[in-house]
Design brief:
Layout (H helix, E strand, L loop, with lengths): L11 H7 L37 H11 L12 H4 L4 H30 L1 H4 L3 E4 L6 H7 L5 E6 L14 H20 L5 H9 L7 H10 L2 E11 L5 E3 L9 E8 L5 E7 L12 H7 L6 E3 L12 H9 L3 E4 L6 H6 L3 E6 L13 H9 L4 E2 L15 E6 L2
Length: about 400
Amino acid sequence: MSLEFPIRCVSAFACLLLAGCQLPPPDQNPTVRRAQSANGGSLYAGAGELNVPIRASAINDVARMLAGMEAYGGQDSFAAVRDSSAWPYHQQQMDALWRRHDLGRGQKIRAWAAQEIGDLQRSRALFYPFSGPDFLFANDLFPSAETHILCGLEPAEPLPDLRTLSPGEVALGLSGLRNALSSITQAGYFVTKDMRNDLQSTRFRGTLPVLLAFLARTGAVVESVDIVALDGLGNPVLVGTSGGSAPGLMIRFRNGFGGLKRLFYFRQDLSNGSTRPGGPFLTFVAKQGYPPALVKSASYLMHDSGFSNIRNYLLRSTSGLIQDPSGVPYRDLVAAGLSLNLYGNYQNTLGIFSQQQPDLAAAYQNGRHPVQSVDFGFGYLYYPSTTSILVARRR
């Protein structure tokens, strides 16, 4: 059976819908039309005349196939993959990866978040800078968010035309995907260099396969995927590609019988030279209602003056901040006058980093802020005994 990926192509009318001051409400779907040009809005590298209106069940089957799950609804677009000799192993390994995260960490994180950050969870959006394709922790901590905004330096590339891939190429792509997911399901964060090697060495490149697999495994039904960019006013517009990396992705999905949600991933350099106050990216984030932010395993970049713009945005323009010590320095959270709650136990950092925070260590001991224990790992020091979480709110 041929391997066919139906493509979602959107007319100029849909671009106008997206170019307003706000995105259309989640349940307001843009009109789906034939693309005006090859690759216009297509997630299919080299799609050309293969652009057709999407069938939501088929794109959801892409996500489920990548996640090692059976087809949904009885119509299998990837029977050839699921009948291959590589499929049972892929399915078994993906099941094991998911159990490792959900039983070892995910269920505990969701319980903690419902109790400790329930007020922040009521926000309609979440901003997760330095995330890469980590929808996993975003969903665990903010399962009710209607809009998730993720970003990183990892590319957002179109998927290949799966009909052109040999069984060996499909098997290699699925293997690379499993390798990319293994570190985050075990340690709780991506090893960026390893992830790039795992994905870029196969035909399943970039962040899209990871995002689709996470969505399927968290129970989402994927409705559509569009290539988007931000205009000068911070409005998302639908764009095409020439087969290379896309500036960003917008994935629409549903959880259960709920309304339509959106996951944005942008390839965004957050250093001062590329992310400026009032620039398109931060303007787009602010238009979502100044959402709370999540920062985890962020390489201590915001401890450097070259990332002061994103640091100051998080301090001044978010309703709250959930982070590990690799995010905004503790001293800056205190100087900004934010209310702080501490969780776990600060144990410095990994040896590859030099940014120690003795003032944070003292804060865990002197009673300046409420301190509670946690029973799960979070961030670089991912054992519960060495996990440190800071929750900051506006007074």
